[in-house]
Amino acid sequence: MNSNIAWLEFSKAAVTTWKFHDEKHGNWPVVYVLDNGQDSVRSSRNNLRDVYVGESLNAAGRLRQHLDTPAKQHLKNIRVIIDPRFNKSVCLDLESYLIKLLAGDGANRVLNRNNGITEAKYYQREVYRERFRNIFERLKGDGVFTRSIPEIENSDLFKLSPFKALTEDQAASVEDILKGLLIDIERSAESTVVIQGDPGTGKTVVAIYLIKLLVDIQNSTSLEDLAPDSRFSNFFTETNRGLLDHRRIGLVVPQQSLREFIKKVFRKTTGLHPSMVMTPFDVGEAEGIFDLLLVDETHRLNQRANQPSGPLNKKFATITGELFGDDDANKSKTQLDWIRKKSRHQIFISDAAQSVRPADLPSELLSNLIADARASGQYFQLRTQMRVQAGSDFVSYVRWMLDPHLLSLPRRRQDFGEYDFRAFDSITRMQDEIFQRDAEVGLSRMVAGYAWEWKTKKDKNAFDIEIDQTQLRWNSTPTDWIASKNALEEVGSIHTVQGYDLNYVGVIIGPDLGFDPERRRLFIDRNSYFDKKGKENNPTLGKSYSDDDLLRFITQIYAVLMTRGIRGTYVYACNVGLREYLQGFIPFSP
């Protein structure tokens, strides 16, 4: 028996007539979807359809409430999903399922508030989930969705959407942070929070979720849209709305590629705006003070060092001078200091082991930041692995394999079950496997350390990476490369993939990193490392970076690259000694 999907016009007359067709229309658990049509007002709203998803035991009554809501007066269509097998738990699950997919589809602006999407367990949940797919396909056939489920789930718009069902440690952290922030605002006290997490624990998701939740509380005008049993519904009060009213909130993202994509997410999310997503320089040059700044990838903030361009060097000095005057004679101020100076409240999201350049914040500054947060009870640790299906142990295992300081310790290979973790001795075979995985499930890419010159920046017909008979090119775009049309044939660098998810990742470890079997140690070849900003000294601060310093950065880069894959990670090492070393810990693919 299929679910019934009824269509009716978004009008009081249509809802009143529909109510009397069946008693279930006023007394049965249902899910409904409201939208403003295929074409109307879309041209003036970034070509997006406005859509709202809800559930109710009294559909007719709930729809009449929506008809009286000013913010929904432009909506035109109602689709009500009715099934004799539905219960309250099923409807809550279907509601969150549709919200997440609509937000990730790319064609919609979801009007729902972010008050806590549920992922509750209930009887026969997997059976119902199969029926949800049928409902999705019927809605897609009716034009509600524009892409398939795999296409949506493979998109970063879906992965970074604020309409996510948080893990328990994420939800608990958001709840405690929000409570503390509201108390501090009420007391006119300043605050600093630190969120720490390994790759794949959803640090960026938490940042975006928090901002959306704060903005929704800030803009709430009534309680009519709130489900009382949702996780954060208790925060939607007149008192909290007053505390957050006109508060200036921003998200700082140091990495260009990730920053540009988050702007796209904000552009398609009600209440958010791309201008809220900033570089550290944007913050430093902004007028006035922010009430709250969230900083994603805090470890990628810069200290005083040679910037990528002359104008940025000048900006760094100008901003620091304007903020601190003569208080920076030894040039010790960093972009972390900018953030603190320009905001009353800060939330720093970090993983020190993902620092990849000498210009990044020094590890001692990050350690002090964490220590201070711990001492004040404002430190939160994300532990649940959301990306890698092999679990959190996989991240620890990769870092352990590549840790130069632990090579003298006894080591054993770890089994990760069905997770596809393989080492190759042929770059061609690894590339073929990536092509095959991409054809099967999509979102499979090759990445590499910065161990080859970027010739194609000047000559588009050249090749950058040549290994045996295989010729490859670096990523042809610095932003949103993973979703670009040529990505499967290209190789992504650390600066295009840090912070992103892939289904399968093929990691090329270049000649910049090797292993000496006689001395049992990892080593770097400085001449094979072509990231100029990744190895240059810092004369401004009188710092020189030794081979040991570069070894730390380079091994951390490869650890980041090897923790991008949701379903599998493939590894090819150019250095023969390193290849043999890694095959002691990674299953070999003949």
Automatic annotation (TrEMBL):
All copies of domain GIY-YIG, residue ranges: 27-113
InterPro entries from the UniProt entry: GIY-YIG_endonuc (IPR000305), P-loop_NTPase (IPR027417), SLFN_3-like_DNA/RNA_helicase (IPR018647)
Annotated PROSITE patterns: GIY_YIG
Descriptive protein name: GIY-YIG domain-containing protein
Species this protein is from: Viridothelium virens
